Amino acid sequence: MDSFVVGVDIGGTGTKFGIVDNVGNVLFSSEMSTKKHEQINTFIDELYEKLSELIEKVGGFGRIKGIGVGAPNGNIYTGTIEYAPNLPWRGIVPIAKLLQDKFKLPVRLTNDANAAAVGEMMYGAAKGMKDFIMITLGTGVGSGIVANGQLVYGHDGFAGELGHTIIIPEGRQHPNTDQKGCLESYASATGVTMTAIELLKNSDRPSLLRDIPLDQLNSKVVFEAANKGDEIAKEVFDFTGKILGMALANFVMFSSPEAIILFGGLTKAGDLILKPTREHLEANLIEIFQNKVKILVSHLKESDAAILGASALMWE
Amino acid sequence: MDSFVVGVDIGGTGTKFGIVDNVGNVLFSSEMSTKKHEQINTFIDELYEKLSELIEKVGGFGRIKGIGVGAPNGNIYTGTIEYAPNLPWRGIVPIAKLLQDKFKLPVRLTNDANAAAVGEMMYGAAKGMKDFIMITLGTGVGSGIVANGQLVYGHDGFAGELGHTIIIPEGRQHPNTDQKGCLESYASATGVTMTAIELLKNSDRPSLLRDIPLDQLNSKVVFEAANKGDEIAKEVFDFTGKILGMALANFVMFSSPEAIILFGGLTKAGDLILKPTREHLEANLIEIFQNKVKILVSHLKESDAAILGASALMWE
Fold this sequence. Notes:
Largest interface: A-B, 45 and 45 residues
Largest sheet of chain A: 5 strands, mixed
Structural class of chain A: alpha/beta
Helix content of chain A: 25-40%
CATH class of the largest domain in chain A: Alpha Beta
Number of helices of chain A: 8
Number of domains of chain A: 2
Oligomer: homodimer
Shape of chain A: globular
CATH architecture of the largest domain in chain A: 2-Layer Sandwich
């Protein structure tokens, strides 16, 4: 009899989950709110109820090998979510144990970007690769690193915080970490918005973006303006790609990946961001690395990717 | 009967080699010039002659398990040295094959910093660690990265060029690579000298260093002046430590090592450089990494370390 795994992707706003077969098909999936659960126990109860329905559809709990979970600051060694700023639960949450006790199934947890990297390695753009880096460019910047065919967890399980590496010393201040000039302050949806505001302030050149109230300015609006040929909007993406390319060059000189897989909202800007990124990546590499590394955009369906990635932890 | 391995460390000026037992004792060692051999074949011939003498002392070729070689731009996958700017041989040198044919023994090659990392893992400060980064601060900056207990080679064998990561965008130009603002331009013996020259030029404050002709200024002289309390000389190390600490923070947020092992000439400056390095490392880390990572100085005898590291490739 076939067996299946469950993938759960816990995000700040919502949690997605689904049943996955051993070739990466998401058979059934659903989602629920994370935010409304101030208590972890009520979150677990609702997840149990909703997941049980899906599990029954594939023949019951006996068919399930285990549950893979991706969550911000999820730690594979301890099975705990530790001090995740975007989740409603404070401190250290022993989520793997709580799920294990409730579902009576094996549970593996890692952070969401690591889970996505495993998903890419098993079903996506990194299939067959042993050395690659996965970067998610969303509200923030997440990352998962694979070297020698294995996720790099580091001694404490927290490796791969590439969004927090410093790219511009004494640069833009990060609102949460107080760091100055880290990648996330530039190459995220939030960073794009901040760059747009800066460029608008620092010149009086005309721009479609000037018609938009500051509190409605976001990366999508900037993308639309750039597509209409707006010079300032295009500059925003050039600048973002410049910073991202420089950062990627540093990552390449660290672990020499075969490819860097980009994922998340900002990749929708396509060549607007990818072209300057590639250019500045190559410009900052020393010769032995030039014209070798592929920059790929994940082709997994966004709604499935998170679930697939988490579930893949159980096949790993 | 005990068996032994040979370690060979090929440097731009000289090559060191020795016979090592399985607990890391260098039983016999010697060295020869690299520089004088414009042809790789005469280099191999002299190495064979000199090494044979040592091998006879431990009972002949039958006792030797193999030869481990560390060399700049040495590639473990191909057994070749590729475009090493500091060696007399141009292009791609199939050194592993040449040695194998000559000695009729298994040969493993990697770059010198990777070899040093293996040496530290087997016999040195990183004994028992599964996640650490080795950084050599000499004329240049080399590095070897260990994650999940394995050297990170990358898809092409060239991972770990941390000396070439960009720390100060648009910063100091590197004389060989033309990169601007890479770590090696600051945190090397050469970088220290350049910083001293800059600081002397940019002020007219008194300094012991002003008595020294520019072409005799080097990191050792700056160290001696700093030890005598010279303010500018101390500032040179503060600045060097600041850049190094910032770079190390980025490396920690990449692979979350248990320790960073420092090695090479600059570490002799002790707390002059280590104190600002530690300070700026911590200041640039996000919270989950703070006060966790050890900064250790290699305690292997410098003359042995290179041979041990190379030989350890054969026990690996």
